[in-house]
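assembly run, all chains below
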Amino acid sequence: MLTETGLMELVRSGRRDEAITLLLPAFRRKVFGLSYSFLRDREAAEDVTQEVFIKVWRALPGFDARASLSTWIYTIARNASLSALRARRPQSSLSDPEVTQAVEGIDPVPSADVLAERSAILRLVDQLPEKQRQVVMLFYMEEQSHEEVATMLAMPVGTVKTLLHRARARLSAAAGNMGATA
Amino acid sequence: MSTPNSELDKHLQALFGGLDTRADFEARLMARLRAESQTAATERAVRTREQERARYRRAVSELQTWRRSMLRMLTLDTLGIALLLVAAIVTAWPHVSQDVMDISRQYAPYIAMSLGILIAAVPLLAMWAEQTRRPVRLL
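ok done. output:
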């Protein structure tokens, strides 16, 4: 079990690489998900995730535990993602073939109907307002924890719940409409 | 297409639940960290060397100042000693025996010349020592 005290002990004894090795399993996916929710580009999100861990590695000796470790790492990740986003315009889309392929690869045996439905839902998620889209992605990526998503996006839990509720209502309605017009 | 909420949850879970980095992510990161670590060590070494050079230059500069002041002191001391010597001779002159006085009179020009050379030589020697001193080698 990774504790902040244990981690800082490692850093103080000059074992920063070891500290990062311990941080990676706990935060790799979360940081990647957070970057991905901003950038909507797998390659860019992975690059940003690498940058985030390098920044964390550099800054670890100065970590003063005023904020929790996760809050600190998510702040670095959000800032890095926003910088990458500013540096790279126009945005890609969640429904880009590469992204679709990546998410489709998660489920090894989806039927053609299921794939089509998921593609449609992905397009709908892509059309959501930015904050709603981020909340949806992170909520379903992060084992449906409102608290974790709130920490990742630096939002109150109530805001996350509201955004998620609105997003799901929108998605349901849009999916219903698509079904009616099909 | 009609998607009830549980169905929607299932799809969203399937779409985003498994999102992850590529398999070689950690290996690439650790390689970058190792490179970063080496760069940081090199930068630290260069910084330490620069600091050591600056410290050495400061020490040498302080030493040179001290040496110059010591040489000035030495020149003044020599002059003072020479004057004291003259004063002592003048004071002792009437009490010295006739033989010594005769010898002294005989060698007076040489003694005066030697004294003059001694007084003049100290600052010259000091200047010479300062100029021919081996240049200070910095690290």
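The interface with chain A takes residues 1-5, 8-9, 11-22, 25-26, 28-30, 32-34, 36-37 of chain B (CB under 8 Å).

Residues 60 and 66 of chain B are 10 Å apart (CA to CA).

not gonna interpret more than that til we talk
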